[in-house]
Specification:
It contains three helices and eight strands, in the order E-E-H-H-E-E-E-E-E-E-H. With about 160 residues, it is an alpha+beta fold. Strand 1 and strand 2 form a beta hairpin. It comes from Pandoraea terrigena.
Length: about 160
């Protein structure tokens, strides 16, 4: 099986991704909206990793959702079809109802392709109303942040991870 997106590391959390032709215009430029998809997909894999399950099932079980409140990008380098890049997740801020994840996407040559700042808001499933962050999510984010302070740097895109 060939995968274009997979988890490389849990500490820090890193997803390796390969640009598919269908994510680009005829000139080979990645569609701007595709970057949002990259970030949301990485965030969902991150939530699954935090709780040891599939993201939506885990959030359903705990009764909360994490839709996007804010999303910001800084584009540094172009991505082309078949480029491989690694997205590293850092927990930047944990607030009452929201938290912020910083994501850095690096190409195989260690150049930053883009960085993103994703701020989800916690909502009650079904009601679509904001809620205070569930203690289980707060604890998971805090534990992840603490573990990452002691973790080694991730491998770069294209390197084999032991």
């Amino acid at each position: 099986m060939i995968s274009t997106e997979y988890v490389v590391s849990d500490r820090p959390f890193v997803v390796r991704r390969q640009v598919r032709w269908g994510e680009c215009d005829p000139a080979g430029v990645v569609y701007t909206a595709t970057f949002s998809d990259y970030v949301i997909c990485v965030a969902e894999l991150f939530y699954g990793s935090l709780f040891g399950g599939t993201p939506q099932a885990v959030k359903n079980r705990h009764g909360f959702g994490t839709p996007t409140r804010a999303l910001e990008f800084d584009f540094r380098r172009s991505l082309w079809p078949d480029d491989v890049f690694d997205v590293t997740v850092e927990v930047a801020e944990i607030r009452t109802r929201t938290f912020t994840l910083l994501m850095s996407a690096r190409k195989a040559d260690d150049d930053i392709a883009f960085s993103a700042r994703l701020t989800p808001i916690c909502i009650q499933r079904g009601a679509r109303e904001s809620i205070e962050m569930p203690p289980v999510l707060r604890a998971a984010l805090e534990q992840y942040r603490a573990r990452c302070e002691h973790a080694a740097a991730p491998s770069l895109a294209g390197e084999i991870t032991p």
